[in-house]
């Protein structure tokens, strides 16, 4: 028999500096999935890593220790000790884990409720895990059901009527504070996905010049 478990941290539980330490760059996730599935008692695994959350979903043997699997994984992937981040983690099993994943997929747990990006990010994480062979019967059923729930939430409620992202909300706030953004000069701090979306919204609002500052020069140039 297997049991479902989800462990992670998000904008609700951890400051950005802790989330950054646990975040996994996209190129490293395939190896991380393989490493997770090598842990004793781990049958299936999926990793969701975004700017606001890092989560692992697992199908565990009934006798497996979630803490043991996590401790080894954190040490191997992030050079972190479980004790140093344990206070920021949520560890959910069974029905609580299922409910959490449904809320995440439906954007009910997002910083901006109703934003559509998280569903696409979860679909990408699922596709990669399928490709790596770390998702099969149990997690496959759970995640595909989460996609179905998210679709129902969007079609049967008004959550998507004014769907926004953090980037969109930031640009709207800037417009409220400074008025018309047409012809303005703006600096973006960071060159990740949210900055890319913010740049698009700023251009749509007529921003004249957009500057980017980032820890990695090449990524700033790319944006």
What are the defining features of this structure?
alpha+beta, single chain, four-stranded antiparallel sheet, 223 residues, 2 domains
Q: Which regions are unreliable across 5 or more consecutive residues at pLDDT < 50?
A: none
The tally of domains stands at: 2
Largest sheet, in brief, is: 4 strands, antiparallel
Which class do the helix and strand fractions yield? alpha+beta
The helix count comes to 10
**Intertermini distance:** 47 Å
Give the averaged pLDDT, no decimals.
Answer: 90
Apparent shape: globular
Full CATH superfamily name of the largest domain: Glutamyl-tRNA reductase, N-terminal domain
Helix content: 40-55%
**According to CATH, what is the class of the largest domain?**
Alpha Beta
Instruction: Enter the CATH topology name of the largest domain.
Output: Beta Polymerase, domain 2
Sheet-strand content, in percent, reads 15-25%
Return the CATH architecture of the largest domain: 2-Layer Sandwich
State the strand order across the main sheet. Answer: 2-3-1-4
Number of strands: 6
State the order of secondary-structure elements, H for helix, E for strand.
EHHEEHHEHHHHEHEH
Computed Rg: 19 Å
Commentary on this structure:
- Helix 5 (95-105) packs across helix 7.
- The protein has 2 domains: 2-156, Beta Polymerase, domain 2 (2-Layer Sandwich), CATH 3.30.460; 166-222, 3-Layer(aba) Sandwich (Rossmann fold), CATH 3.40.50.720.
- By secondary structure, it is an alpha+beta fold.
- Helices cover 50% and strands 18% of the residues.
- Strands 2-3-1-4 form a 4-stranded antiparallel beta sheet, with helices on both faces. A two-stranded parallel ribbon has the order 5-6.
